[in-house]
Design a protein that fits this description.
The chain is α/β, with parallel strands linked by helices. About 50% of the residues lie in helices and about 10% in strands. The longest helix is centred in the middle third of the chain and has 16 residues, at about 45-60. The protein is globular and about 40 Å long. The termini are far apart.
Amino acid sequence: MISAPPNSFVLVDKGVMSRFLLGKPQITEAYTKLTNTSVPVISASIYIELMRWLVNIRGRKVDPITKKEFEFIRRQLDKYVQLNHAECIELAVEVSRIYPDTGLGDCFTIGVSLFFDIPVFTLNQKHFERIPGLRLYRPDNYDLLETN
């Protein structure tokens, strides 16, 4: 049987992507199920956050990734569709104004999600749930996903 092609997009944030790229089992399961119905995408800000994360885990003193792992993950990131539009920045600024405790990356993620009207797959729901009109993607195993 051939499965139907994905018919929608889901914006995947840094926390989910980084755990997926490291092969965390519950995240990998949820991500794999996501790809059966949707196309996972990132934004420019998520790409930048992930590149900073890569540099940090490459240089950490305990359990750093190898240069080969770094290059492999970087090449994987380059394959993702990056959704961006100038109006996303305006929405991000508005989110920051209304909710000043929301971090820079989350503000941009919210702006992209609202502009393109696509759900966000995040482990940090507290800054997202309160945004009117924003949709969250919650996999069946959400309560089991690693948050560390």
